[in-house]
Amino acid sequence: MNPSRASWPDRFSLAHSAILFAVAVGFGLLSEHVNIGLDNPRRWVPDLLVGVALTGFGSFAWRLQRGTGSLLFAAGVAWWLGDLSSPFLYIHRGLLLHAVATYPSWRTSRAGAGLLALGYAFACWYSLASTNLGTALFGIVVTGVALARLFRAGGRTPKLRMAMVYAATALFVGTVGAVVIRITASRDVLEPASLLYQVGLAAAAGMLSLGLRAPTSTSIANIVVDLGESRSGARDALARVLDDPLLEIGFRTDDGSYVDASGDHIDLPAEGSSRVATLVDQGTGRQAVIIHDRTLLADTTLLEAVSEVATLSASNAELNARARHQLTELTEARRRILTSEDQERRRLSNWLYDETEPGLASVEELLVFAVEALESYPGIVTPVGDALDQLRRARDDLHTITQGLHPWESSGDLRTAMLALAEHSPVPVTITIPDISIRDEVASAIYYVCSEGVANALKHAAALHIEVALMRDYDRVTLTVSDDGRGGADADGGSGLRGLVDRVAGLGGVLQVESPRGQGTLLTASFPVDGES
Length: 533
Description:
The protein is α+β, with helices and mostly antiparallel strands. It contains 18 helices and ten strands. It has helices at about 15-35, 40-60, 65-85, 90-100, 110-125, 125-130, 130-155, 160-185, 190-210, 215-220, 225-230, 235-240, 300-375, 380-405, 405-410, 415-425, 440-460, 495-505; strands at about 250, 260, 265, 275-280, 285-295, 430, 465-475, 475-485, 510-515, 520-530. It has a five-stranded antiparallel beta sheet with strand order 3-2-1-5-4, with helices on one face. A hairpin with a 2-residue loop joins strand 7 and strand 8. Helix 7 packs antiparallel against helix 8 and helix 8 (about 160-185) packs antiparallel against helix 9 (about 190-210). The protein is rod-shaped, with a radius of gyration of 41 Å.
């Protein structure tokens, strides 16, 4: 699996960096020879080493991040230029301030550009920069800028920002410490003050450069384990390891665009941006994309490891999407079965009533006529009257059966059916139901939950009072059935509640049973109201 995008470090290889560094060191030796002379190593060697540290760390950083690398390398060259011409003596401060203020890049906002312009102007103002006040101000300003950027970051502090703070601290110690030595010590110890300043510059460059080091492939490989342990998935795991909170992993769709694991659209960065899009072949003809900081491109091995993780994430996302699709299909199938069941109940109820009731009504009319006509014949009218009574009981039973097949519709509406249920209860049942419109299949499920809850409270809980409430809350409708009985109900222990759990789940809802022993039972059924009538 190879990234399909060429990276700029390929054009600036280790050999190119080594050549530039060698040329810079040669220029440094020349400047030391012109300014100090090479006959006094105690003076020119420390000065040369500062420039070597700045340009060396700049060359190293250049292969990871052009912005920081260029600024550090330029600071080293400016350090040696200061040996040749006093107007350039403190230009390195402006470059180091720039490196800290924009780390790990070199771009900044409009307000930041104004601050950098002031920093460069201050560095060029020789009469101020050469004083103790100017040196101390430089250290204080750099530290203030670093701390401001640190606090603006918020949340977990990335290693890159900590490297910036450490570098600013080194500059602060080197500059302010040198000023303190110069003010408090005699002229005989000015050399330690200069040495402390030089060490501070070199240490700051080293921290900025080494802070750009990318994580090892081993740490990336450990993300494979995180995939099974982290709910946030590979994207957040990669972002943590790489200290790149803006990192994104996208997957190519059929129309050529890219989306993340949640299905949100991802825009690829423009050419020349600090962000880079690396395309990854998943090996199945499909592509993924990683949008990350340019520093990742410096390590080919690391990039390949990240690509492997992206491929695993793509496969994982595809499996999750397939599972979600199957779950959606299963839910829809269960909903269709429940809807079909309700329709069949309705059809059977109507068929029984339409096919049987008219005939029974006709027979009842004949029997009534016969009773009236044979009233003077007691031996005949008595059995005819008994037949009429049995027929009327049969009609009542038929009405009960047809109403039981679809009770809430037979009552006219859900509210009337639930109030009728309360009226026939031998214990008080308080019904609270607003006038809201609900889908038929949801209304049916609500009635069955209410009916089963009331029946269980009467049969098994020895309840003295039952409360039923239906409420609408944003995008859900919720039914609660509570009683003051003995409790101990178990949704898994009987077919009644188990069937209700399945019915409610088939409509995208949730049924919860809370029934601590001795404290009554609470049934809570919650349904989505999408598609309400």
